[in-house]
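# step 3/5: fold
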Amino acid sequence: MVLRELGGPLRLEDFPVPKIGPNDALLRVRASGAGLTVVIMTANPGIVTSYPRIPGHEVAGEVVEVGPQVENVKKGDRVACHFYLTCKACQFCRSGRETLCRNFGGYLGMAADGGYAEYMAVPALNLCSIPEGVSDLDAAIATDAIATPLHACREEARIGPGDQVLIVGAGGGVGIHAVQMAKLCGGWVLGADVTDDKLELMESAGADEVIDARGEELSRQVLAKTGGRGVDAAIDLVATASTLEVCLRSLAPAGRLVILGNRPQAVFGADPTFRVDPGLMLRKMLEIHGSRYVSMAELMQALELLRQKKIRALVTRTFPLEEAEATHQLLRENKIPGRAALLP
């Protein structure tokens, strides 16, 4: 499925099987997750480096060929893909913070062709093995929708046993797994969203309380459900100016706001810049964190959580590859609870 212009529709086209370099692997794609990240990035200027481009970064597949210098995977391996194209050699890459790579090369599916295809070429060091007992579909979802909240909950929100946690956008593809991850960290979880099917899914995923954000102002609902105290951490996957300000107002003393979503003005029209009251920040000693994807080690941990059945991949809709554009339209209209996926 090919993107030929910024924000344009995806169209089914025949392309030759990609050729690989000495450090690359060729994958037969088995599953590719579809989420709002792809929809946003393909419409945000400067993210896609050239056209035509095949999107798709939540990828699991089978190795069918490797370059002569590849040692970490071999033909026949089942593998999952890391999203970021990094140098593997700078200070950040070598300290396990490769999402801050000094020589960042862009995103899989944006700066290099991705998984909305039958075959894709990828740097072999971006691949890790899928554990036995984990399906290709679940592994694909782990590469972003499960791994991303693992980092956000553990490293940025620092959720511990008994912490009260607000997740805004908790019924979406990443949010629904953030609910599970926050619970796994020991949190008491308040999930907020705006459609009935997402509210129901949040309950089934283990949210302790569900908040309909279409109703009374969100921070008032949060304070009411926490006895006026507020939450220890708020994870915002929507990240509009209004939701971010609401999250700050919902925090207890020493609370952490974690920004996980991104709604760029170039795509959505509205300015996401939010106001911060320095007096409030000082008085309550609040923190604001940006959470940027995961390390390769964290991706491997997410896959292991699937193997141990500590986390469930919540995929509510699957589509054939040729329906990628229809899938994206449903995502734009906020009509898919949980995660969607394409199955070539």
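# step 4/5: annotate
The chain is about 30% helix and 25% strand.
# step 5/5: archive (pending)
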